[in-house]
Amino acid sequence: MAVKVKRSIVKIDEEKCNGCGLCVPSCAEGALQIIDGKAKLVSEIYCDGLGACLGECPQGAITIEERTAEEYDEEATKVHLEDMQKEEELACGCASANVAQFVETGPSTDEMISRRSLLGHWPVQLTLVPPKAPFLQDADLVIAADCVPFAYPGFHQDFLKDHALVVACPKLDDFQAHLTKLTQVLKQSSVKSLKVVHMEVPCCSGLVHMVKQAIQLSGKDIPIEEVTIGIKGEILAPA
């Protein structure tokens, strides 16, 4: 039976939390995850109570309180982090992750071009993309929030032509796993530039935060451009 003691531990106000995910990468123990659109403490034993996540929450939804809780378990936390890494590696082993690149063929009319997919490779989900994929070499990479292609009608013509693509959701996906994966991608490939295309909703800003942190962790100096798409499908703020 787990030992409970009175100690400092994270408290999350779900009424204030908007699910942006900015707190997740700041927790080195992997104690925080976005679940059902809200930040959650996945287990008391993973929280050291030091509050590294406090300064990352723009909503003030995270505080440290003194209460009776299970003791922080450093060994269990190490196992937890290893399991998170294994889950990411297993996800990359599914058939959907088979790498493919596509080549345009033949001339086309303007109407045909407007309807043609300009996606140049597969896969596109960040979780499935191999860090050393051929399409990432010397690439101008678009990192798009999942909702963007549905909201913006000119996504293929305006963002995909001559670009590689990865997509992710900063609210519903595993933020820490994505941060780790994107850092690996930037370290192990030769991406030349990054364009982050996200929606105007607050939770989507976490994607920009993730990309900037991944660049820093990669140790590379990669130029980044940010484009915001409105919920009605218009470009609001090209950087």
Layout: helices, strands, pairs:
Blueprint: E1 4-12, E2 32-35, E3 38-41, E4 62-70, H1 74-91, E5 100-101, H2 110-115, E6 121-122, E7 140-145, H3 148-151, H4 155-160, E8 164-168, H5 175-188, E9 193-199, H6 205-218, E10 224-229, E11 235-238
Helix pairs in contact: 5-6
Question: Describe it for me?
Answer:
This protein has 239 residues and is an alpha/beta fold. It has 2 domains: 4-90, Alpha-Beta Plaits (2-Layer Sandwich), CATH 3.30.70; 116-238, 3-Layer(aba) Sandwich (Rossmann fold), CATH 3.40.50. 26% of the residues lie in helices and 24% in strands. It has 6 helices and 11 strands. It has helices at 74-91, 110-115, 148-151, 155-160, 175-188, 205-218; strands at 4-12, 32-35, 38-41, 62-70, 100-101, 121-122, 140-145, 164-168, 193-199, 224-229, 235-238. The strands form 4 sheets. It has a 5-stranded mixed sheet. A two-stranded antiparallel ribbon has the order 1-4. A two-stranded antiparallel sheet has the order 2-3. A hairpin with a 2-residue loop joins strand 2 (32-35) and strand 3. The longest helix is centred in the middle third of the chain and has 18 residues, at 74-91. The protein is globular. The relative contact order is 0.14. The mean pLDDT is 85.
Mean pLDDT: 85
Low-confidence stretches: none
Q: Can you give the helix content as a percent range?
A: 25-40%
Order of helix and strand elements from N to C terminus? EEEEHEHEEHHEHEHEE
**Largest beta-sheet details:** 5 strands, mixed
Task: Please tell me the CATH architecture of the largest domain by its name.
Answer: 3-Layer(aba) Sandwich
